[in-house]
From TrEMBL:
<dbReference type="Pfam" id="PF03950">
    <property type="entry name" value="tRNA-synt_1c_C"/>
</dbReference>
<comment type="similarity">
    <text>Belongs to the class-I aminoacyl-tRNA synthetase family.</text>
</comment>
<feature type="short sequence motif" description="'KMSKS' region">
    <location>
        <begin position="296"/>
        <end position="300"/>
    </location>
</feature>
<feature type="binding site">
    <location>
        <begin position="46"/>
        <end position="48"/>
    </location>
    <ligand>
        <name>ATP</name>
    </ligand>
</feature>
<dbReference type="InterPro" id="IPR000924">
    <property type="entry name" value="Glu/Gln-tRNA-synth"/>
</dbReference>
<dbReference type="InterPro" id="IPR001412">
    <property type="entry name" value="aa-tRNA-synth_I_CS"/>
</dbReference>
<dbReference type="InterPro" id="IPR014729">
    <property type="entry name" value="Rossmann-like_a/b/a_fold"/>
</dbReference>
<dbReference type="InterPro" id="IPR022861">
    <property type="entry name" value="Gln_tRNA_ligase_bac"/>
</dbReference>
<dbReference type="GO" id="GO:0005829">
    <property type="term" value="C:cytosol"/>
</dbReference>
<keyword id="KW-0547">Nucleotide-binding</keyword>
<dbReference type="Pfam" id="PF20974">
    <property type="entry name" value="tRNA-synt_1c_C2"/>
</dbReference>
<dbReference type="InterPro" id="IPR020056">
    <property type="entry name" value="Rbsml_bL25/Gln-tRNA_synth_N"/>
</dbReference>
<dbReference type="InterPro" id="IPR050132">
    <property type="entry name" value="Gln/Glu-tRNA_Ligase"/>
</dbReference>
<dbReference type="InterPro" id="IPR020059">
    <property type="entry name" value="Glu/Gln-tRNA-synth_Ib_codon-bd"/>
</dbReference>
<dbReference type="Pfam" id="PF00749">
    <property type="entry name" value="tRNA-synt_1c"/>
</dbReference>
<feature type="domain" description="Glutamyl/glutaminyl-tRNA synthetase class Ib catalytic">
    <location>
        <begin position="280"/>
        <end position="365"/>
    </location>
</feature>
<feature type="binding site">
    <location>
        <begin position="289"/>
        <end position="290"/>
    </location>
    <ligand>
        <name>ATP</name>
    </ligand>
</feature>
């Protein structure tokens, strides 16, 4: 190892205003002390479901930190649990990581290392550090003891090395039924840390594996496979969530006892299999999970919503999966902003969902062009314009950023306005359109309501107005002030659209909290999806799928990535312009 002074600072050391959380602090120290010259991390999801918003935190840390320090991050599929895993999820995970803006150095699978894990286990047995146990899973549980009582040694614990070796080879050869034998680490049945009470290393499971097929009747346990995968990939900092804190002693035990770097034959095997890596001694560091209010972040429960048909799939915009949020119109930038703002700590907490929504708003405010749409239409007729009147008005695409350019918006005698922008009996402080009242039509001028037409049921079906010609742009009265400005879409030019209005999936902040005797399923917000028919200005209808817009005064919307077509537009509401939940809970 070089001395600290001999170590050149890595080229991409973050600026002084870079995040200074405890993990980055450790990494800086490891670089400046010369402990490591490059930073290597991994993101290790289990391909048994799609990723959710909680995983975004791990992704942003694993990939983000590697990038900040000019290192790299592997995407490692932790596929040690065959049967629950599915290639569909593998593809989904890859997609989602890329969507968030990250690229992996190598794509690995824990199953790439099955042979090395197996041979390393043989070494452990030879070194007297592991033994084959014949206790059944129930018996093992019984022998394990409790938090307050030590466990008992298995009667098979003192089996000879030769016998364990032979039995383990026969386990691998598929000679024994599922669950009849286990390879266990010989550590300490009296340890205060339950994870250290002779944990299982291998179990027998005759299940077809998505990558290795029927080659293996035995599968390594997570704790064993995970840390050794880190060593094999040369991972320097193995970042994980707090629930693994109690597993860290076991992580270190396996790393030390297996001591992979001292087995050149295993490295050679890896190299021949196409996995060239430099070993490292990884350090596990834990951070707190991301929990969001009004959300569930459990793959099992998300899968239940899908399997029971309570949502329209993993990418239903109500779901807090990354693909759900994507389809809903949330941005990767907004999600990354949330993670950055929250920082990293070891403190568990529930973050208000409004903070995520605000980050998404902030990102979309800067990045989404403006358009006009009407989602609850009421007809407005301008009686002092001729029937055939038609104009093309120039609108800027972004009020704060000229680089977005401008577009032409058709204007004519008949328009759609939002029903709620007209009130026959206006409440106090109502500054929009009312009988005999005036309002500014965005980009057009001031109209005055001169007549209200009603349908047979008494509801307002049309409002008739006159347009003050002096108030039009370029005219002397263009600056005349009226209190309200409303948006509109030309009825003759507007394109009918399906608008899906999404809202939070649950109607209580902590759906998982079952202390009131209600299951989380009962807290599903029935209004989380509402479909309405609206009208779009032509330039909005022409959007490519996944184009996001601010529909003026309504919120941020996205052209549905699967269902939208220019002739039959479908837009999803990502988020309203303001937080509508704050006043409800206040
Ligand atoms: P679940 O409990 O939903 O099944 P998991 O932790 O089992 O999630 P994995 O696929 O094993 O899911 O997770 C991959 C990585 O993502 C792990 O390193 C895990 O610590 C991290 N992770 C999972 N959930 C969160 C979360 N809510 N916040 C931060 N990191 C998370
Ligand atoms: Mg897990």
């Amino acid at each position: 190892m070089s001395t600290p002074t001999a170590v050149a600072k890595p080229a991409a050391t973050p600026e002084n205003d870079a995040p200074r959380d405890f993990i980055r602090q450790i990494i800086r120290e490891d670089l400046s002390s010369g402990k490591h010259t490059a930073i290597r991390t991994r993101f290790p999801p289990e391909p048994n479901g799609y990723l959710h918003v909680g995983h975004a935190k791990a992704i942003c840390l694993d990939f983000g930190i590697a990038r900040e320090f000019a290192g790299w991050c592997n995407l490692r599929l932790d596929d040690t649990n065959p049967g629950k895993e599915d290639p569909e999820f593998v593809e989904g995970i890859k997609d989602d990581v890329r969507w968030l803006g990250y690229e992996w150095h190598d794509l690995r699978h824990a199953s790439d290392y099955f042979e090395v894990f197996y041979r390393a286990a043989l070494k452990l047995i030879q070194d007297g550090q592991a033994y084959v146990d014949d206790l059944s899973p129930e018996e093992m549980r019984e022998y394990r003891g409790t938090l307050t009582e030590p466990g008992r040694n298995s009667p098979y614990r003192d089996r000879s090395v030769e016998e364990s070796l032979s039995l383990f080879r026969r386990m691998r050869a598929g000679e024994f039924p599922d669950g009849s034998k286990t390879l266990r680490a010989r550590i300490d049945m009296a340890s205060g840390n339950m994870n250290m009470r002779d944990p299982a290393i291998y179990r027998i499971r005759t299940v077809t594996h998505q990558n290795t097929g029927d080659e293996w009747p035995i599968y390594p346990m997570y704790d064993y496979a995970h840390c050794l995968s880190d060593v094999l990939e040369g991972i320097t900092h193995s970042l994980c969530t707090l629930e693994f804190e109690d597993h860290r002693p076991l992580y270190d035990w396996f790393v030390d006892k297996v001591d992979l770097p001292s087995h050149p034959e295993l490295w050679e095997h890896m190299r021949q299999a196409g996995f060239h890596t430099e070993p490292a001694k990884p350090r596990q560091i834990e951070f707190s999970r991301l929990n969001l209010s009004y959300c569930i972040t459990s793959k099992r429960k998300l899968a239940q919503l899908v399997n029971e048909g309570l949502v329209d799939g993993w990418d239903d915009p109500r779901m807090n999966t990354l693909r759900g949020l994507r389809r809903r119109g949330f941005t990767p930038g907004g999600i990354r902003l949330l993670i950055e703002r929250l920082g990293v700590s070891k403190q568990n907490s529930v973050i208000d969902y409004a903070i995520l929504e605000n980050c998404v708003r902030e990102d979309l405010d800067a990045s989404a062009p403006r358009r006009m749409a009407v989602i609850d239409p009421l007809r407005l007729v301008i009686t002092n314009l001729p029937d055939a009147h038609e104009e093309s008005l120039s609108f800027s695409n972004h009020p704060k950023d000229e680089s977005f350019g401008s577009r032409q918006v058709p204007f004519s005698r008949e328009l759609w306005i939002e029903r709620e922008d007209f009130a026959e009996v206006p409440p106090k402080g109502f500054h929009r359109l009312k009988p005999e009242g005036e309002v500014r039509l965005r980009g057009v001028g001031i109209v005055k309501c001169v007549e209200v037409i009603k349908a047979a049921d008494g509801s307002v079906s049309e409002v008739r107005c006159t347009l003050d010609p002096e108030s039009r742009s370029g005219m002397p009265g263009a600056d005349r002030k009226v209190k309200g400005t409303i948006h509109w879409v030309s009825a003759r030019h507007g394109v009918a659209a399906e608008i899906r209005l999404y809202d939070r999936q649950f109607n209580v902040p902590t759906p998982d909290d079952e202390s009131d005797g209600k299951s989380w399923i009962e807290h599903i917000n029935p209004d989380a999806k509402r479909i309405v028919r609206g009208w779009l200005e032509p330039a909005a209808a022409a959007a490519a799928p996944e184009q996001r817009y601010q529909f003026e005064r309504l919120g941020y919307f996205v052209a549905d990535r699967l269902d939208h077509r220019a002739e039959v537009p479908v837009f999803n509401r990502a988020v309203t312009l303001r937080d509508t939940w704050a006043k409800q809970s206040a």
